[in-house]
Every structure is written in structure tokens, then in C-alpha cells.
Design a protein that fits this description.
Elements lengths: L12 H20 L10 H13 L18 H13 L4 H27 L1 H13 L1 H7 L5 H21 L4 H14 L2 H7 L4 H5 L13 H22 L1 H14 L14
């Protein structure tokens, strides 16, 4: 692991402002372009926002045809809150969560990349994260992907920080809960995969062991994620289990287009 660079080598506010300006410009381009909500499965997330605002279904949402949402509600909550402030659902309220998440991801790249590899490298990497095709799509799509990307990146960096410092896992588990409530438990899996390096770190002669208590963090993670899941099952019952677990968590990874009926949980 590279040694952190001196304090003087860290990015200034001007660097963060430049990245923010770039993201705002890209966001403006997206808003000025013709809408494309009927492409890339954006229409259903938009209907979930409407369901939360109009019908008060904030815990779990359905589309106008009665289909249960396939994703947990963090993106929907963010977009719906923007719409409430704005007074109505619009392209701005639908795109803003993804654009903000893309900006926050770029800021993470700038901060961590500059600290480890120098300001120039960190700044170039942050610019690239905004300008590459996936970053630009994240800024202009009414989907969960950009928010999920940010939460996974944040969780992974908090895991690395806790590993290096030897404790403080509570923030890691809270970020993992946020990621799980954005797009499911794979967020925790993706973010924690880097910790597998601790196995071969032992060969280095000076290994950084995984230390610190996870008790509080795990308790908060379970309370938030399992609590939401249990309340959603209590609210919608079997259709929620079949959709979120049978189709999304099990069916999608193995290529099934229909849901797998599951017993009542």
C-alpha cells in the first residue's frame, strides 16, 4: 500500500470546485437534451417515485400495473424528497440523485487518489470518472446505478480505512446498510472483497491484521436492512418476497426472466 503523501500534497478546494463545475455542466447538458425516460428501464423508477408521493407508499413501492419494485428504496426516497421540495416530479428531481452520487464518487476518487498518488493523478482520475461514458450516463439516468456505485465505493474505502487503522468498523457497516438499501446485499459483498487481501498480506512479513469490534456496526446493519425487509414483507407479503428475492436476488444472476416462487418468509 503506498504511503500517504504529505498534507501539502492534498487537493485544494479549487480542485473539488473544478470537479463540481464539470459535473454541473454535464448535468446541464443532460437536462437541456430531449428526455429519454422510455429507454434503459427508467420509466418504472419514475413511477415508484410517484407511488411514494401520491399514494404515500414510502416503505415499498409498486408500478401502475401492480408490479412490486425490484430494488430497495434509497434512490426512490432521494428523488421523491427532491420532488417534494421542488413541488412536483420532474426530470430534475429524477436525475439529481444520480448526478449528485456521480459527483460524490468523483470527489472520493480525487481525495483518496491525491492522498495516495499525488494531486495530479487524483485530479485526472476524478475528471475521468465524470467524463467517461459510464459516468456521463450516471449523471443523466433515472436509475439506482450511480447511487449504488457511490455507496459501494464509500463502503470499500471505509473498509480499507478501518483495516489500516485497526478499528472503527461502525461507519463501514452503516455505509454497507446504505448500499444494501440502494440495490441489495451485493453492495456489501463488492465492498468487502478487498479485505480478502488480508489473507496473503500475512506473507509480507509485516501484515496489517483485521482488528477492531464489529458488534455495534453489525447490529445497526441488521436493524436497518432486516428491519426494512421485515416491514416490507409484513406490508406486501408474498409478492414482495417473490419479486425481490426470487426474481432479483436469485433469478437474475442465473439468467431467469421469471421469478422463482418462494415460501412465505
Amino acid at each position: 500500500v503506498p504511503e500517504p503523501l504529505p498534507e501539502t500534497a492534498r487537493p485544494s478546494r479549487a480542485h473539488f470546485a473544478a470537479i463540481a463545475g464539470l459535473a454541473v455542466a454535464m448535468f446541464g447538458i443532460r437536462l437541456a437534451a430531449p428526455p429519454n425516460l422510455l429507454e434503459q428501464d427508467q420509466e418504472r423508477p419514475a413511477t415508484y417515485v410517484l407511488d411514494a408521493i401520491i399514494n404515500g407508499n414510502w416503505l415499498i413501492q409498486s408500478d401502475p400495473w401492480g408490479g412490486v419494485t425490484a430494488k430497495p428504496p434509497v434512490w426512490t426516497w432521494l428523488s421523491a424528497l427532491v420532488a417534494l421540495v421542488q413541488g412536483h416530479v420532474s426530470l430534475f428531481s429524477l436525475y439529481l440523485p444520480g448526478a449528485t452520487a456521480a459527483l460524490c464518487t468523483a470527489w472520493l476518487v480525487l481525495a483518496v487518489g491525491s492522498r495516495l498518488f499525488g494531486v495530479h493523478a487524483g485530479f485526472v482520475a476524478a475528471v475521468a470518472s465524470v467524463l467517461h461514458i459510464a459516468g456521463f450516463k450516471a449523471i443523466g439516468l433515472a436509475r439506482t446505478d450511480a447511487v449504488f456505485t457511490f455507496t459501494v465505493a464509500l463502503t470499500a474505502l471505509l473498509a480499507f480505512r478501518s483495516w489500516m487503522t485497526g478499528g472503527g468498523w461502525t461507519w463501514f457497516w452503516l455505509a454497507a446498510a446504505l448500499s444494501t438499501l440502494t440495490k441489495g446485499p451485493l453492495g456489501l459483498v463488492f465492498a468487502a472483497c478487498g479485505l480478502l487481501a488480508s489473507a496473503w498480506e500475512r506473507r509480507s512479513g509485516a501484515p496489517a491484521l483485521l482488528r477492531g469490534s464489529h458488534t455495534v456496526g453489525v447490529a445497526l446493519f441488521v436493524a436497518l436492512t432486516v428491519g426494512w425487509f421485515a416491514l416490507s414483507v409484513w406490508t406486501l407479503g408474498q409478492p414482495f418476497v417473490d419479486r425481490l428475492i426470487g426474481r432479483e436476488l436469485i433469478g437474475n444472476p442465473i439468467g431467469l426472466k421469471t421469478h422463482i416462487p418462494l415460501p412465505w418468509l
